[in-house]
Design brief:
- This protein is of the alpha/beta class and 223 residues long.
- Helices cover 39% and strands 18% of the residues.
- An 8-stranded parallel sheet has the order 7-6-5-4-3-2-1-8.
- α5 (92-104) links the parallel β4 (85-89) and β5 (109-115).
- α1 (4-14) crosses α2 (30-38).
- The longest helix has 21 residues, at 161-181.
- The protein is globular.
- It starts with a helix and ends in a 5-residue tail after the last helix.
- Bound molecules: pyridoxal-5'-phosphate (PLP).
Length: 223
């Protein structure tokens, strides 16, 4: 069986230049993460605050941690002191809490706004209408302890590639529109985080700048 380290090296050699790889290590052990770290990879994604805290304490301090799951507002303070980026900002309320906890921690926290692009109701994220309403309100512009770096989205879980392609194209189109209308003078608004083990090639064709890949690197998850 190929090791996590060799999976990482192989995938990195295949990704086009400029595409950032977030190795999604949720449910995986610190030892498995260390295997990937040993191959020179330092960027990992987790989706539960408590699990992330435990791993962070057990692992090297130069790891760049990305938060990619639904985040309850009362958990923000746990990760605010160290998180590199929160990719899954899905409400204005959450962004407000991140802004205040970042200020309290003396940091500016990078964030992606999560857009709901899938057919499934179960997935989190803003609709484009909710997002533009939030941006027009001016509330976001007054938050000085968050850096809005772009958008994140998850496509429908389906083998229907044309459906997935359509959803990623929609996310790219929303990104371009928001960049033009609200973030034209914000150079760090440049990331489109889309693509997972099953659909990252389609996502890259549609303009992804960041892929979040778990199973293909670490093997199938049990939960
Ligand atoms: C689990 C997860 C991933 C990785 O999924 P794989 O199919 O294992 O590559 C990516 N993004 C989010 C938000 C996730 O929760």
């Amino acid at each position: 069986m190929p090791s996590v380290a060799s999976n990482i090296l192989k995938l990195k050699s295949e990704l086009p230049p400029g595409i950032k790889l977030v190795a999604v290590s949720k449910t995986k052990t610190a030892a498995e993460i260390l295997d990937a770290y040993g191959a020179g990879h330092k960027c990992f994604g987790e989706n539960k605050a408590q699990e992330l805290l435990a791993k962070k304490d057990a692992l090297p301090s130069d790891i760049e941690w990305h938060f990619i799951g639904h985040l309850q507002t009362n958990k923000v303070k746990l990760i605010a002191p160290f998180i590199s980026i929160i990719q899954s900002v899905d409400t204005l309320k959450l962004l407000t809490v991140i802004n205040s906890e970042a200020a309290r921690a003396g940091r500016v926290i990078n964030c992606l706004l999560q857009l709901h692009i899938a057919e499934e109701e179960t997935k989190f994220g803003f609709s484009i209408e909710e997002l533009t309403t939030a941006l027009v309100s001016g509330a976001v512009g007054n938050m000085h302890s968050v850096n809005i770096c772009g958008l994140m989205g998850m496509a429908s879980f389906t083998d229907n590639t044309s459906q997935v392609r359509k959803e990623f194209a929609y996310l790219k189109q929303c990104f371009d529109r928001l960049k033009h209308e609200y973030f034209g003078t914000t150079p760090h608004f440049k990331e489109i985080s889309m693509g997972m083990s099953g659909d990252y090639k389609t996502a890259i064709e549609a303009g992804s700048t960041m892929v979040r890949i778990g199973g293909k690197l670490f093997g199938e998850r049990k939960k």
